[in-house]
Amino acid sequence: MEAEFEDALEHAAQGETQPQQAAPQASLQDVLSDSPDQVPPQNDLAKKTKSAMKRRETLFLICILALPVLNWIVFWLSVNVSSFALAFQDNTGEWSLINFTLFWDELTSPYGDTVGMAILNTLKYFAVNLLLIFPLTLVMSYFIYKRVAGYRLFRVIFFLPAIISGIVLVSVYSNMISPTGPIGALLKAMGVQMPEAGFLLDPNTATPAILIYCVWTGFTTNMIIVSSAMSRIPVEVLESARLDGCSAFKELIFLILPMIWSSVSTLVIFLLTGIFNASGPILLFHPDGGYNTMTLSFWIYLQVYGGGSYGGTGNYGLVSCAGLIFTCIGVPFILLVRHFIEKIPAVEY
Fold it and tell me: What predicted TM-score, i.e. pTM, was given to this entire model?
């Protein structure tokens, strides 16, 4: 008994215990034997879901863009390609330069409401839009932005022409400036000599009278855009300028205008793109373009749809030729002006 007890103590002193078995390690052959093409089921399902979502997004984008792309192809690309081809064809469809000869005759003819008169009137409308209406829009927008007395009323009044029908405005304006109208009576009382038939029925005053109408109704969309651009200007900048004694004129020219130059330059470029489309409501004042009121856009309208001696001729080749010529003149001019406008740095804030 004592011998067994001594043997147990001796084993305990020597620390003889059962060693723990180590976990078997995977051999290199076992690792290499695993195929890399084997993908867990969860990853495979995620890839399939992602691929299906991408296909649905692509289909959605195609459906959204299909209509506008089709509209552009049918109503812009094909029309312009056809118009370019018509400029070099006569009425029988044969290739010819007769349209350029006819256009030159129209341009240099001293008789009737020709292209020469239409170009002159069109440039008048463009000059009034760029040099009178647009600067006045900036000034009016500035006064509304500064919240002068009655600015809410002025904002509604200036935007009314965009709400009221054009035929209503033309009727009101025609009656107001007629010899029996309130403005006509006022001018007579002031000793101003008026044409007997009225301003709109005299070749020397018809176009200036319509230009005045365009000024009266021209403060609409641009005023909203300019006012929105001014509302983004930090108030701290204007308060600092006011503390330095900056006048209202200097504030508009040297502070506000540079800070909204990106919007102003965009509007100017848009005005330039319409240099040969500038016109007034000629159809509402004179449906035949008489009394020296012809413009380029109205001349094209009369050639295609209008009535009278210059209306509905069906000479689409002449109209296409005119469009091609003015496009070749207008595009380089617009790009040149845009190049110089973009050199003016815009203020970031």
Answer: 0.78
